[in-house]
Amino acid sequence: MDKVRVAIVGAAGYAGEELLRLLSRHPYADIRVITSRQNAGKDIAEIFPRLAGTGLSFSMPDVEAIKSGCDAAFLALPHGLAHEFAEPFINAGLTVIDISADFRLRSLDQYKKYYKIDHPAPGLLSSAVYGLPERYREQIRNAKLIACPGCYVTSILLPTTAILAAKLASPEGIVACSMSGVTGAGRKVDLPYIFPECNESVRAYGVSGHRHLPEIEQELAVAAGLPSLSMNFIPHLVPTNRGIQSTVILDAAEGCTEEAVADAFAKAYGNERFVRVLPAGKLPDTKHVTLTNCCEIGFKLDSHTGKLLLFSCIDNLTKGASGQAVQDFNIRFGFPEETALV
Amino acid sequence: MDKVRVAIVGAAGYAGEELLRLLSRHPYADIRVITSRQNAGKDIAEIFPRLAGTGLSFSMPDVEAIKSGCDAAFLALPHGLAHEFAEPFINAGLTVIDISADFRLRSLDQYKKYYKIDHPAPGLLSSAVYGLPERYREQIRNAKLIACPGCYVTSILLPTTAILAAKLASPEGIVACSMSGVTGAGRKVDLPYIFPECNESVRAYGVSGHRHLPEIEQELAVAAGLPSLSMNFIPHLVPTNRGIQSTVILDAAEGCTEEAVADAFAKAYGNERFVRVLPAGKLPDTKHVTLTNCCEIGFKLDSHTGKLLLFSCIDNLTKGASGQAVQDFNIRFGFPEETALV
Amino acid sequence: MDKVRVAIVGAAGYAGEELLRLLSRHPYADIRVITSRQNAGKDIAEIFPRLAGTGLSFSMPDVEAIKSGCDAAFLALPHGLAHEFAEPFINAGLTVIDISADFRLRSLDQYKKYYKIDHPAPGLLSSAVYGLPERYREQIRNAKLIACPGCYVTSILLPTTAILAAKLASPEGIVACSMSGVTGAGRKVDLPYIFPECNESVRAYGVSGHRHLPEIEQELAVAAGLPSLSMNFIPHLVPTNRGIQSTVILDAAEGCTEEAVADAFAKAYGNERFVRVLPAGKLPDTKHVTLTNCCEIGFKLDSHTGKLLLFSCIDNLTKGASGQAVQDFNIRFGFPEETALV
Amino acid sequence: MDKVRVAIVGAAGYAGEELLRLLSRHPYADIRVITSRQNAGKDIAEIFPRLAGTGLSFSMPDVEAIKSGCDAAFLALPHGLAHEFAEPFINAGLTVIDISADFRLRSLDQYKKYYKIDHPAPGLLSSAVYGLPERYREQIRNAKLIACPGCYVTSILLPTTAILAAKLASPEGIVACSMSGVTGAGRKVDLPYIFPECNESVRAYGVSGHRHLPEIEQELAVAAGLPSLSMNFIPHLVPTNRGIQSTVILDAAEGCTEEAVADAFAKAYGNERFVRVLPAGKLPDTKHVTLTNCCEIGFKLDSHTGKLLLFSCIDNLTKGASGQAVQDFNIRFGFPEETALV
């Protein structure tokens, strides 16, 4: 197969590093350009010594050069910036796979409410495909602009959409408690993230209004066949490098049984390479999925309260970001979906 | 003041170590006996080098010797064993402060259901006082048998009972998600607790039927003025040594406001030395309470779902076990409540 | 290429898990048998959920079945047991790659002194090849029995042998201080290795007589062209899962310069895929090599004392054990040396 | 006893926090002023929630106010700044206890070489007393300016000076390998110190020219009765919050035995409250000394190389900084040396 020539724009953060780790082993990807304003001119070995073998160097982002020299571009930028690249790249015929949040929300109002700016490129929204392969695989095959889901979002959607779609729980009153490792905050140099402030610490944050909340609500509503829904998403920071554990509490529908839940998951994910559903009562562990693109799911029906409990674990940088982006890339370009992924 | 002569039965676990740490600095406690079947005869320096300065040695538990030589006994034993000591000690006039679970539950049925054995000493139950000072201080003053609350339980009761007592939230459908450090499992030598299995790992466990569940339900029902209630308690293991973070999600009562919540907390805990309530929206952190007897509480009313979110952090070995036991000891013997505690 | 049919004997420890992780992605290895006395009959998903996709199950070790059905066997057993498998397998024509310590030492006396038993199969020793590819690649190509180096040993030999061979430092008075993550102790369920005993802890151990000492001395003597030498090896346990950092202090030879050191390393490792030598003064980091088969090396000549300081980092389970075993396997069977390795 | 009125200048770093933790429990210290340019005006609860109970607030440093209102000042400032406070305070009759590096080195040349600036107040140097109580207790009793030793320095001097003073090892060719937790870098917001860069990482740094090197050399020379000596000090960063483990390798003197070493330590530290020497072959652990002012020391004579190995563990913020400062304060003002310390 011909190799796809790719650019990674914003390659010096943790999501960028993970993309580099994965794509550098991808037999059908040819990394042509990696950009970083801050590190332009530096050899990759200076920033990510473990990737020294790739021989790559960071450059300043150059839209024209990428347009003419690449077939696809991964964008790993802070929100609000992706469109500066997405727009010209799409116009030039490239496929854009965006890891930022800019093209995930359907609603401009929600975008403004949670990101505090007007959406910078509303015209692109209609062409964006939500990059969760387990729910949007067919659309991804032909997408020009793929908006990769947020990390927390992925961990909550995979267990919960299958249950809502099967009408096994109520879409009202859903609560999701998540715990994330510190790379989830990005490669951010800020006091709350230095080692002594995170180690031996557990803390909730962003408990009513985290930016991933409207994205979760949007996709759960789609799964439930509703125009919208409201739920609680409560993230916590825990002292690990990688991994998200999400615990989702739902009101079980009448007649819901653990067998029915197992069946719904089997139907949804029986053929999925990257979703592993455990038997009832077995619970997932973030360490089971570290550095893999897998989502591990457990569940338990609590008969004494009538709650259905869902549990999921992903690696926030892999299935929660760059691994899923590569999975999308593989789907889009017709490669076996698991290429370069485990 | 005269010193109280104390024994610590089962002193070689983490709760025992924490008791020793605290009592060895207590100006009115005279540690006469520390027992450990496994370590009898060993100098404390062999087991807990940091306590070498106390000059203590472990002995086999000797009921008669303790009866005649001590005024109070702390029991830090696995469940099912405490009565073997509690009964003779109480009969001999000693005050017993039990850190195990044996005298916490009012219901023999619940005890049997969750601990899988018949209660070994039902006759003692009626004399047991639940050792949560913030709710049972007066009874503790005259107690002969004090049943110290479980660690998770303490972290959930402190924020939640005040809210239920003030009728600011519904007692139905309560969900508590907790995250605990690994000392919560005791000094247990078992595969799931070795370092490489816990480090870089987050996992839920015991999600429908943890032994702390009936204890939480019992005390929340008391606070709500109900004969009983059912709720979900979902514990998670995170890679820290110490600390519990509990997130409690309740349906806010009609008309509940953040001001009303702040007032309820001020009323309940305004004079409490070991409860620190943060302003609305500020969230607690386990590292703020490590090695202290404090419970740090935060809260947030989520107007878009009508849920009231409570957050609390304690050190599981201090306020969650041995610190609270010392606080009870101070109350019972008339010492300033904060003696030997920070 | 035809696939090589392999068995992994003793596959339920951390080295076994790492072998499984690597070989399950190896395009030319066909894992036929994985054995574990303790877990015989269990599906791999129960023990190593992340490897569920391999569909393997543990069986009791069956020498006859392996002899007739496999071309190569990896042994990941405690010392003293490997010969029970190595002998019949070699006689049956299989290639044996042993991760245990049994065939590393040339001297039966040293084996007895450090392992406290008579060597169980001295007759096999002469046919064993020491499996450090960077020094014994040619012999590995034709070996029937490959003795993979110890983890600490690998981290110390790679920087130090090149320097001794180039006569840039004295072979006398060498000191190596190493720090290892806890998987280095194996999947061992023992009090010193439970999370709360390792977390927030740094400690030296085995400081005069660790079992890796005679192995280091043996190979450093070979590199120095001496019949034997004595040195100090001082291991420390640090709270990480994976990784060894070794700091080696040597007396620089007269006229030794940093340029000469860089040249010696370039000559020794310029063509090596799995050794990365940093510029003078740049220091390695265990996180740069996690889950890779690389050894990262740094150095510094301290002019004020005349000491040459060498630093190296490896992943103890990859280059320090199973990755190196796979590298040996690749060499032995003529596959590209980096197959299934990064 | 009358309370001593104290100021803490630069109280918002980790050493400042530790001083606050200790002094807030000190029965004879009255904390009058805590300064922080960055946090002036803020309540302590905002910066260090666990110290909320002290009721203190940060102010801008005000030399005149401190001069007139305090008896002693602790300085916890970066190097190069202490003299701005030390000079006027001493002139006004206050006792100054400086945790910075500015008054530790006797040699202005060494100061300039390692700190890259001319010493800002050479006139004060002659009045400075080196604040290591185990070696300079008598001078500390009457000191006006106490220069508290560096953290690494303390961990190396305590085991090594006793051995050199007893002539049990050569002062030549000493090597010290140390491992420190991340608070050792201060509360520094810099990429190498964010959680994901430190967790699962071990790395050497500052291996030939760390600022603590000349200080160690100076004091070891004093102990050995030499005008100067040269040695190697090699620090490593490990993923813990607190704790330093130092391993010191020396050439044992002829006739040195483990008994002689034990005797030398007994003589040096038999009456010391904060030095705990373990029996030969037993090794210290940083977790044994966390949050205490103790130094735990182990040793081993390696007969096969003739090296004497010393091991020590301290809490870098307590005995390595603020605890030692409080110990000095207690000595200086005639309080029992262990007041407020464990």
What does it look like?
4 copies of one chain form a homotetramer. With 342 residues, chain A is α/β, with parallel strands linked by helices. Chain A has 2 domains: 4-148 and 320-333, Rossmann fold (3-Layer(aba) Sandwich); 152-316, Dihydrodipicolinate Reductase, domain 2 (2-Layer Sandwich). Chain A is 32% helix and 20% strand. Chain A contains 12 helices and 14 strands. Chain A has helices at 14-23, 44-47, 63-69, 83-91, 108-115, 122-125, 133-141, 151-165, 195-198, 213-224, 258-269, 318-333, and strands at residues 4-9, 29-35, 58-59, 72-75, 95-98, 128-130, 145-147, 175-180, 203-204, 232-237, 244-251, 275-277, 295-302, 307-314. In chain A, the strands form 2 sheets. In chain A, strands 3-2-1-4-5-7-6 form a 7-stranded parallel β-sheet, sandwiched between helices. In chain A, helix 7 (133-141) runs parallel beside helix 12 and helix 8 packs parallel to helix 10 (213-224). The first copy, chain A, is globular.
